[in-house]
Amino acid sequence: MTNLKTNDQLLRKMRSAASKSLTAEELRQQKISFIMANFDEESSVTRDYVGAVLDKQDGRKSAA
Question: Which among 25, 26, 59, 29 is positioned nearest to 47, based on CA atoms?
Fold first, then answer.
């Protein structure tokens, strides 16, 4: 067994970040990133297109 120890400062920052609520725009950007990560690198799908589709599904006017 090893004696690994996580940095206390890092743990505090992670706890703080985990308790923070995301804004609607931050959540939208996370959704876009998640969707984009599931496409093949060769895909022609763009972040703007994914954002436009999400906006349409949410009933918002797309910025694109």
Answer: 29
